[in-house]
């Protein structure tokens, strides 16, 4: 009885929020249009907020943002082969999300990626990331619905859970793990957005997946080295999200060494490049914290390094 009631409630929520979803789709398409124009509007991942999302995912991985941190930046890839552009546009008319369920387009995307399309590899990585925490079967889905009702989750949560289940149905967890492989392939081929996505991805998740084929120590070493490398390259292209993450990670000594000067240098670069007032305020506050812990000489070294980094930016 409860299972039937839960299913009916989900259907009702979907109907009630249809108009809202239409509005959100228009908003999503607008963001893609802005990205296509080349505007620097990416938002750096905030460490505190990211940790909160991860904690929520651990509790209930149907949470709206679980697995979407990569997929929500659907920038077109200028390195993809023109011969595949039309095919990919038909498959993913909204930038990264497919026109059908993932399973229906999986073989075609795989074929395009094998043929060398960096864009196809990146789209596949984004979709597998989006589906990473989706329910694997009807029983799992129903369990999530019941849990959501017990936790008094709102309508949007249930609608997103249903949409994700329908979109990702039929793709098993083993295949979902391959998002790392396709993301690396796109990043190694020069896709800046793939580099950023890999750089800001949850390190422990990447290590866990890579540990399936090698030792945990080697996996962690490789992941951290790749994350730092990709973020640095993306930063050289003026990607604010990558620059901001480097400032955060270097300050937190994520890469195993204390480099407060470089952290502050990247922070200053964020302040110079960002057009987002909230990002500016956050990093202005962080600047004061860094300055309090660094010497005057180190602060001046950071300013000098910022000037050097800015002069080396690869702008279109």
Number of strands: 0
Shape: globular
Q: How much helix, percentage-wise, in residues?
A: 55-70%
Question: What is the tally of helical segments?
Answer: 17
Residues in β-strands, percent = under 5%
Structural class category? mainly alpha
Describe it:
- With 316 residues, the chain is mainly α.
- The protein has a domain of 114 residues.
- It is 69% helix and 0% strand.
- The protein contains 17 helices and no strands.
- Helix 1 packs across helix 8, helix 5 packs antiparallel against helix 6 and helix 12 crosses helix 13.
- It is globular and about 60 Å long.
- 35% of the residues are buried.
- About 22% of the residues have low confidence.
- This is Sel1 repeat family protein.
- It comes from Thalassotalea euphylliae.
- InterPro entries: TPR-like_helical_dom_sf.
Task: Write a concise synopsis of the structure shown.
This protein has 316 residues and is an all-alpha fold.
List the helices and strands and how they pair.
Layout lengths: L1 H15 L1 H19 L10 H13 L25 H7 L10 H13 L3 H13 L7 H13 L4 H14 L4 H4 L2 H10 L3 H9 L2 H8 L5 H21 L3 H12 L8 H14 L3 H17 L2 H16 L5
Helix pairs in contact: 1-7, 1-8, 5-6, 6-10, 7-8, 10-11, 11-13, 12-13, 13-14, 14-15, 15-16, 15-17
Please describe the structure with a list of short key phrases separated by commas or semicolons.
TPR-like_helical_dom_sf, mainly alpha, 0% strand
């Amino acid at each position: 009885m409860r299972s039937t009631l839960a299913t009916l409630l989900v259907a009702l929520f979907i109907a009630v929020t249809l108009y809202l979803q239409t509005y959100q789709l228009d908003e999503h398409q607008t963001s893609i249009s802005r990205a296509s124009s080349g505007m620097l509007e990416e938002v750096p991942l905030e460490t505190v907020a990211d940790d909160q999302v991860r904690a929520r995912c651990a509790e209930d991985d149907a949470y709206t943002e679980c697995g979407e941190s990569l997929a929500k930046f659907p920038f077109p890839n200028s390195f993809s082969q023109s011969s595949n552009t039309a095919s990919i546009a038909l498959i993913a008319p909204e930038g990264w999300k497919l026109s059908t369920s993932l399973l229906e387009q999986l073989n075609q995307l795989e074929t395009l990626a094998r043929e060398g399309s960096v864009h196809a590899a990146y789209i596949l990585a984004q979709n597998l990331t989006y589906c990473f925490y989706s329910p694997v079967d009807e029983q799992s889905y129903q369990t999530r619905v019941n849990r959501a009702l017990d936790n008094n989750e709102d309508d949007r949560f249930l609608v997103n859970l249903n949409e994700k289940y329908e979109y990702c149905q039929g793709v098993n967890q083993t295949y979902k793990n391959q998002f790392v492989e396709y993301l690396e392939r796109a990043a190694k081929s020069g896709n800046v957005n793939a580099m950023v996505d890999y750089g800001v991805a949850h390190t422990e998740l990447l290590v866990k997946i890579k540990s399936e084929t090698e030792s945990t120590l080697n996996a962690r070493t490789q992941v951290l080295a790749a994350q730092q490398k990709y973020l640095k390259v993306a930063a050289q292209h003026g990607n604010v999200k990558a620059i901001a993450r480097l400032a955060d990670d270097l300050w937190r000594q994520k890469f195993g060494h204390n480099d407060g000067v470089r952290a502050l240098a990247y922070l200053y670069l964020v302040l110079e490049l960002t057009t987002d007032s909230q990002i500016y305020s956050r990093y202005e506050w962080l600047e004061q914290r860094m300055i309090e812990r660094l010497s005057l000489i180190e602060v001046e070294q950071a300013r000098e390094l910022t000037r050097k980094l800015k002069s080396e930016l690869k702008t279109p």
